[in-house]
């Protein structure tokens, strides 16, 4: 179906619009689509009337679509305009013909258009209510989102605060771990030495520059006098004196230190801008001295100050132990040297003894040697080693030396003397043991008699340069809870023979044991010519000691006693004894 209207006036446009609305209703076009068609058509017709001229409206239905087209006259050259709406139902012919120009039909069409508009308005009202509902729902959703955002923001702040607290706790734990590690390492470094001067030297090396800019140690001597402070410490002398007198740490600065366990003092007049921390070196009685420090920055962290006070306490313990060790070592060394025998002078028999104290640790006092005559003119040479070290070992060595001389007055062979010493030591000190070798030279007798108790074997050099170890089975150590009779052994003596007695400090090495050291001693002794030993036995002994001790840490005493039968003398004489 097709209808056409010519439009030149407003009336033509109104009639065409009304007819189009009526036809759209007849074709079953939905009210919303009819309203859209009417609105679009009205707008286009208004534009056409504005432009003027003749226009043609064509309304056509085909295949369920209602198509409206407005075209101008061919002379105007205006492109046609069109709009389409769906029309599901075919129109009644009477309706189509009645849409013409009947006023009643036109009025009915207008009423129908108004009804369509009312329906559209109702739909719009429903849509508006729906929009209002969704708007309210959206508002409530927005409120919920805002509340959720607020909760998330609060949770985020709480999480950030928790992270900050965790980070601060981790940093505090790391700082505490660092301080404890430093304290443990520093304590180990300080207690590793038994030399108080080395401990004093290590303290600044440990603390500068991380925990202090400068460090000075002010020690008191035995008479409680104070050594002059080191250069640069005059500004802290007053605070150091207070710390040493009161036994409490002192902080001298122009501001309070706020350090736990530390008293505040006014700043130094000479250096008012330099804070100084003075910590006494405590002992059970009076302080050993005072440690004075200046901070690495503006001031100390309170935890660092607590750590420094604890380190000073441990340094004081190390210094006290070192001083006690040095005191005991000096006593033991003095006693050791006082008890070492001046060797007798015997015609035809040269003697050379060497004693070297240990250079590491409190190892003074265990090793000893002796040489003396028996009433029958025989010469007793002995070398021994008391277990343990220090003053106690030195005292026991002196008692064994005295007991041996007393037993020798009654005569007796080396084995008998060692047996008596074994019994004596077992009853005197059941928990102390000793080793020893005794060799006896008898005038006019070309035989050496010797006995050993748990000691390294003697080394014998023969006149032709051959060296051998006297490997006869020795007795057990002196003092062990065992009854024993120590046997004598004999070796022939000819001019040019050299006997070496020694302690284990000369030949024993921790990584190698004792046998390689004995072999080295035998090789060194065999390297001398008989004439060299005749002429200078002491110099020969020194040339033996040097290569044997070159690889030693010297953590034990060393004794070497050489007895040499002069090759220019047929027998050992009973000549004079000297010291």
Task: Report on this structure.
With 579 residues, this protein is an alpha+beta fold. It is built from 13 helices and 19 strands. The strands form 4 sheets. Strands 5-9-8-6-7 form a 5-stranded mixed beta sheet, with helices on both faces. A hairpin with an 8-residue loop joins strand 3 (65-72) and strand 4 (81-86). Helix 1 (10-26) packs antiparallel against helix 2, helix 5 runs antiparallel to helix 7 and helix 7 runs parallel beside helix 8 (391-409). The longest helix has 89 residues, at 103-191. Mean pLDDT is 83; it is low at 95-101, 223-235 and 574-579.
Question: Short summary of the structure?
Answer:
By secondary structure, the chain is α+β, with helices and mostly antiparallel strands. The protein contains 13 helices and 19 strands.
């Amino acid at each position: 179906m097709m209808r056409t209207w010519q439009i030149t006036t407003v009336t033509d446009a109104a009639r065409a619009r009304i007819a189009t609305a009526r036809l759209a209703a007849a074709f079953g076009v939905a009210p919303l689509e009819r309203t859209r068609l009417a609105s679009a058509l009205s707008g286009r017709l208004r534009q056409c009337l504005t432009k003027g001229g003749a226009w043609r409206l064509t309304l056509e239905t085909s295949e369920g679509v209602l198509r409206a087209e407005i075209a101008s006259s061919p002379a105007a050259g205006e492109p046609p305009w069109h709009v389409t709406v769906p029309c599901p139902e075919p129109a009644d012919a009477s309706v189509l013909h009645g849409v013409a120009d009947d006023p009643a039909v036109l009025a009915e069409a207008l009423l129908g258009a108004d009804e369509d508009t009312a329906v559209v308005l109702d739909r719009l009202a429903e849509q508006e209510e729906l929009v209002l509902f969704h708007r309210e729902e959206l508002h409530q959703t927005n409120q919920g989102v805002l509340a959720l955002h607020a909760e998330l923001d609060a949770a985020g702040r709480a999480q950030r605060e928790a992270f900050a607290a965790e980070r601060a706790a981790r940093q505090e734990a790391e700082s505490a771990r660092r301080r404890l590690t430093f304290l443990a390492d520093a304590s180990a470094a300080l207690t590793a030495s038994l030399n108080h001067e080395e401990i004093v030297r290590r303290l600044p090396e440990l603390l500068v520059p991380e925990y202090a800019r400068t460090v000075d140690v002010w020690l008191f001597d035995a008479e409680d006098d104070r050594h002059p402070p080191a250069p640069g410490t005059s500004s802290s002398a007053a605070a150091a004196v207070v710390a040493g007198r009161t036994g409490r740490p002192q902080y001298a600065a122009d501001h309070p230190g706020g350090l736990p366990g530390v008293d505040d003092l006014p700043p130094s007049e000479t250096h008012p801008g330099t804070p100084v921390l003075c910590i006494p070196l405590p002992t059970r009685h009076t302080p050993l001295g005072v440690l004075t420090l200046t901070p690495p920055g503006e001031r100390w962290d309170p935890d660092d100050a607590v750590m420094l006070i604890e380190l000073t306490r441990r340094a004081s313990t190390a210094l006290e132990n070192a001083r006690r060790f040095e005191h005991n070592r000096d006593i033991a060394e003095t006693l050791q040297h006082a008890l070492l025998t001046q060797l007798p002078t015997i015609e035809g028999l040269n003697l050379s003894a060497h004693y070297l104290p240990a250079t590491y640790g409190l190892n003074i006092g265990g090793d000893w040697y002796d040489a003396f005559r028996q009433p029958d003119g025989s010469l007793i040479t002995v070398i021994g080693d008391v277990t343990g070290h220090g003053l106690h070992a030195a005292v026991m060595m002196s008692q064994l030396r005295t007991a041996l001389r007393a037993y020798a007055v009654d005569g007796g062979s080396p084995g008998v003397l060692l047996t008596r010493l074994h019994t004596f030591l077992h009853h005197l000190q059941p928990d102390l043991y000793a080793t020893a070798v005794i060799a006896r030279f008898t005038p006019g007798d070309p035989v050496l008699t010797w006995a050993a108790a748990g000691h390294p074997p003697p080394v014998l050099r023969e006149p032709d340069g051959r060296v051998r170890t006297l490997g006869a089975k020795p007795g057990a150590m002196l003092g062990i809870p065992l009854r024993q009779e120590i046997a004598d052994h004999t070796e022939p003596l000819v001019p040019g023979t050299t006997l070496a007695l020694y302690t284990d400090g000369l030949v024993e090495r921790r990584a190698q044991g004792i046998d390689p050291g004995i072999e080295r001693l035998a090789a060194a002794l065999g390297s001398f010519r008989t004439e060299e030993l005749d002429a200078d036995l002491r110099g020969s002994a020194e040339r033996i000691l040097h290569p044997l001790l070159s690889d030693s840490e010297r953590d034990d005493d060393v004794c070497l006693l050489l007895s040499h039968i002069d090759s220019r003398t047929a027998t050992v004489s009973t000549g004079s004894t000297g010291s």
